[in-house]
Amino acid sequence: MTRRGFRVLFVILVVALVCKACLVADIPVSENKNPAPVEQTIEQQYPQPQNITIDGIDYLQSQAPIGNFGGELVSSTIGEGPKTFNPFNTKDNVSSLMANTMYDGLLTSNPDNGKPMPKLAKSFSISPDEKTYTVILRKGIKWSDGKPITADDVVFTWKDIIFAGMGDTSTRDSLVINGELPTVEKIDNYTVKFHTPQPYAPFLMMLSTPIAPKHIFAPAVKKGNEYFDSFLSTNTKPQDFVTSGAFKLKEYIPAQRVVFERNPNYYEINKNDEKLPYLDKIVYLIVADLNNEVLKFEAGELDIISLQGSKVARYKTLEPHSNFKLYNLGPTTGTMYLSMNLNNRKDSNGKFYVEQVKQHWFQDLNFRQAVDYAIDRKNMVLNIANGIGEPLYTPESLNSIFLNKNLKPYDKNLNKSRELLKKSGFYTDEKGRLYDRSGNRVEFNLYTNAGNTEREAIGVMVKQDLEDLGMKVNFKPIEFNTLVNKLVSTYDWDMVIMGLTGSPLEPNGGKNVWLSDGRLHMFNMRSPQEGKKGILPWEKELDELFTKGALATKFEERKKYYDKYQEIVYHEKPFIYIYSPTIIIAVRDKFRNIYPSSLGGITHNIEEIWIH
Amino acid sequence: MDTLKYILKRIIQTIPLLIVVSLISFFIIRLSPVDPLAELKLNPSVSQETVQKERERLGLDKPIIIQYGMWAKSFIKGDLGVTSTGERVSQKLKERIPNTLLLTSLVIFLTWLVGIPLGIIAAVRWKTPFDRILTVLTSIGMAIPSFFFAVLLLIFAVKTGWFPIGGLTSPNFAEMSLFEKIIDMTHHLILPVFVLFTISLAGLQRQMRANMLDVLDSDYVKFARAKGLSETAVVYKHALRNAVNPMITLLGFEFAGLLSGAALTEYVFQYPGLGRLILEAVMKSDINLVMASLMMGAIMLIAGNLIADILLIITDPRIRSKS
Predict the structure, then answer these.
(1) Chain B contacts of A490, Cβ < 8 Å?
(2) What is the model's pLDDT at position A13?
(3) Cross-chain residue pair B270–A283, CB shorter than 8 Å
């Protein structure tokens, strides 16, 4: 009997010890609920590199403080790593990040103000009629294999790769103006002229597209499209890469890491006339998810990490006695929104995509505005992003240079919502349930992509907010690829929480979303056969604004068109914007020459970063 | 000769089985409302033409039965096709299979090396404190979910700094000498191997112990003892040979798990094996990659069972005479 007692005691002890171990592991993770505000780091203006000619070679000279050479920077990518290293065939962010580390374009954008800044080009000029762009290249600069970079490479890249439709054709597609492509011609070895059929403002920033070494790419282009798609794939030997950027590939280990080493022929020098980059290596670790990334950063295996709102408070308290520094880069460039399906058409079987009863609600501006006023954005910022974010009311992100600042924020206002609903004949019964004028209970499905914890949390809060109005919301997070299929192919959804990436410099990228026959015109998606069928007056206006906005070239003029488009969206509520999380990045404090900026991120000047 | 005929028969039997497996898998994947091009479609800067081009390249514009026919035709020819991003499936699998094999075979080797003797000893010393402690420990081993255990160990690694956080090699692996490389890989492998080892050891040890106890209780063992044979001869010559037969069937299943058994642990430890690759492929409905892995799993399972049956024919005369 006593022996059995001992045995039971022993098992209890073991279990208790295991539990205790879990408790101990949990304690540091728990964080204080009131987030310490991340104070704005004093933003230093980025000293833009200048052109300098030494012994007939047109270098770019860094104006940042001089540093020490050597060392490595370890960063990370989430997911399965790059799919290709061919800069003209990248269809995902990780691949383009890798390609852009190795290949420079003619221009790049200034991280502070978004204005074009020379890279491979020494200078550029635009003709008075705004249709001709003349680009002067640097003399005497070389590819990583020692061959000179000349106008032939530029003409080849644009004519034989981009305009010929090799690889990923999105650059080419976005340059077609009224069915015509721009042309490119070589004037002399270091001068190239581009002609656009009409003045076209987005073209200038397109010149940041990477330039390919002709002597490497020409044989691949000759072998046709299919070969080009597998050219410079992840199986290519690192020594076969010939690059113009600060770094070139050293090794790629699938599912583990990508390592870049310095390009000895890079054309940027420091103020001592020594060739950059300072760092010997950049390592990108391929990690599968955010949690692992955090663990790796805390174990010191990573030098840089982008933090989610919920982690910021803890890192803030750790910062004073740790070897990293937090940088606030401002709001993200993407947008997060709630959208209703405005589709009122039938599919090929004569069935409505959206039930007719629901159509009446979603088509009703009062209903959309009522939903908008019921949503408590500030509460979401506080609870989901832990205060690290800003409410959002416009389709352009908060750091966009085209943001319409006249569109004022407003708070949750349930009374206003109820008033608007009443105006459209909605009524509530004694239990507070909402019915429309024909007596139908207001009930619909709200989707988002499962696995995205932020959107799932928003969904729960939106559901609660709308239930305050008496609506019945069935919140259904579903798998990402399934959701997209609903949004852009089968159109059978009611309400959705989604996000889109955007550019803070160029609203024209959003034309696929806003043009009434656009491929991502989700809130009122038309199949290619339908064309512009059933276009709403304000959709028509958006079409016009986007066409005009792209063809105008003066910033002020474009701003006028894009301001108007934001105003229309602000009033018509096809998308109800929610909030922008703020990007907080932790970087080891041994790195110098860090000039964080909202537009450029933290490693835009990777060649100038050095280790103290 | 008979054995050879038997093997041939078994192999021919697998063909309809594989066809059914492939049909079911293919249709389930393709009929699920997962859009393989979702990421592309949600990128505002990608044009309709590009999406259409991709659809044609992946054959998504054709009826599903034709898609299956195309897949089956190239599969028979030994061509596994390309992934949705245009990389060769065979190349992708080739990158990962050695890593997964290294992990799983190491685990199987260690568990069998430790588990079988422990099972025998526990059975021979039935109801001694040694047996009891082992029972408690294996209960704990069986009760802890591998996922949870792996996460705990990762936190342990972060707090102590004694082990790397996942992966298989360090960033400066390429510059190491052979000896350093082996040390580095071992260092990375300790935690994942430990997780898988603890979990499968528990099952194996208990199985062996139960088999052994069964046999030790049988009449012929009593007879052998009565005959005055030494205890060692009774246990290791007579009892063990009979107790090990069910373990051979188990070995067949272990073989099937060589490529797929460690997926969860691989995921937590960021191990560059098949697990992560296949998981992502399923999420994105990357049909060729998923089909390749499913077929691989089916073939491994069939082969494992076949190997176990053949081994049984060799070790167990009773089965030999029946077949």
Answers:
(1) 33
(2) 64
(3) no
Q: Which class for A162: exposed (0-12), middle (13-18), buried (19 or more C-beta within 10 A)?
A: buried
Please name the residues in contact with B91: beta carbons below 8 A apart, sequence gap of 6 or more: A235
Residue A538: left (phi > 0), alpha (psi -120 to 50), or beta? Answer: alpha
- Is-contact B284 B276, C-beta < 8 A? no
Quick check: B171 and A259 CB within 8 A?
A: yes
- CA–CA separation, A469 vs A434, rounded Å? 7
Q: A285, B33: Cβ pair inside 8 Å?
A: no
Count CA atoms within 13 Å of residue A33 on its CB side.
1
The question of ipTM being above 0.85 is answered as no
The minimal CB distance from B166 to the residues A89, A251, A292 is found for A292
Q: What is the pLDDT of residue A248?
A: 92
> Which residues make Cβ contacts (< 8 Å) with residue A224, sequence separation at least 6?
none
d(CA B244, CA B255): 17
Q: Quote the CA–CA distance of A405 and A579 in Å, as a whole number.
A: 16
SS3 (DSSP) at A350: coil
- Residue A272 burial by Cβ neighbours in a 10 Å radius (0-12, 13-18, 19+): exposed
Q: Which residues of B7-46 are buried (b: 16+ CB within 10 A; e: fewer)?
A: eeeeeeebeeeeeebbeebbeebbeeebbbbbbbbbbbbb
Percent of chain B with pLDDT over 90: 16
Inter-chain touch B48–A483, beta carbons under 8 Å: no
Residues of chain B with Cβ-Cβ distance to A11 below 8 Å are 136
| CB burial readout A567-577, b (16+ within 10 A) else e | ebbbebbbbbb
* Residues B191-206 pLDDT 10s: 999 999 988 888 899 9
Q: Tokens for B204?
A: 């194996």
Token output for A327: 């940088």
Surface of A (88-117) touching B: CB under 8 A: 89, 91-92
> How high is the pLDDT of residue A282?
94
Q: Distance between CA atoms of A404 and A24, rounded to whole angstroms?
A: 50
Tokens of residue B199, six digits: 């979990």
For the entire predicted model, the pTM comes to: 0.82
CB contact under 8 A, B38 and A254: no
CA distance, residue A258 to nearest chain B CA (Å): 9
- Tell me if residue A306 falls in helix, strand or coil: strand
Residues 266-285 of A with CB under 8 A from B: 283, 285
A76, A285 contact by CB (below 8 A): yes
Interface residue of B47, B53, B188, B290 to substitute, partner A, most A CBs within 10 Å? B47
User: Using CB atoms, which residue from A250, A253, A513 is nearest to B169?
Assistant: A253
- Which stretches in chain A have pLDDT values below 70? 1-44
Q: In this structure, which amino acid lies at residue A583? A: I
CB pairs under 8 A between A and B: 167
**Residue A287 forms contact with B (CB below 8 Å):** yes
Give the number of other CB atoms < 10 A from CB of residue A534. Answer: 14
Q: What is the largest CA-CA distance in chain B?
A: 86
Q: What's the CA gap between A531 and A544, in Å, rounded?
A: 16
Which residue do the tokens 């206003």 mark?
A: A416
Q: Please answer yes or no on whether A288 and B276 come within 8 Å at the CB atom.
A: yes
Look at B47 and A174 and tell me if their CB atoms are within 8 Å: yes
pLDDT of residue A41: 47
Residue A301 sits at the chain B interface (C-beta within 8 Å)? yes
Cα–Cα distance for residue pair B289/B277, rounded to 1 Å: 9
Is A8 in the B-facing interface, judged by CB distances under 8 Å?
no
CA-nearest residue to A510 within chain B is: B44
Identify the three-state secondary structure at position A229. Answer: helix
